[in-house]
Amino acid sequence: MTESVVLALGQQAVMVMLMVSGPMLVASLIVGLVISIFQAVTQINEMTLTFIPKMLAMLAAGALAGGWMLNTIVTYTQGLFMHLPDFVR
């Protein structure tokens, strides 16, 4: 296994990780931004106000994109296992 193969595997792993975590992170970012704007407009400075809506948004994003996220991880893992003999050589 050469350095280029190791770098390619690492790059693919990082890309899969970013793709899988993306929907929940974007949902949390959008909800956090909306709540921050609401807090700035109403001058409510409560730090715990953002926790529950962010958790609900992440849960909803996970429920909506969960099938796609699982399919992405399974496809990546199957590809790793299928090419495992090539990596050992």
- SSE ordering: HHH
Proportion of strand residues: under 5%
Give the structural class: mainly alpha
Total of helices: 3
The proportion of residues forming helix, as a percent range, comes to over 70%
Give me the count of strands.
0
Tell me briefly what this model is.
It contains three helices and no strands. The protein has helices at 3-42, 51-82, 84-88.
Write up what this structure looks like.
- This protein has about 90 residues and is mainly alpha-helical.
- The protein has one domain (about 15-89).
- The protein has 3 helices and no strands.
- It has helices spanning about 5-40, 50-80, 85-89.
- The chain starts with a helix and ends with a helix.
- The model has no long low-confidence stretch (mean pLDDT about 90).
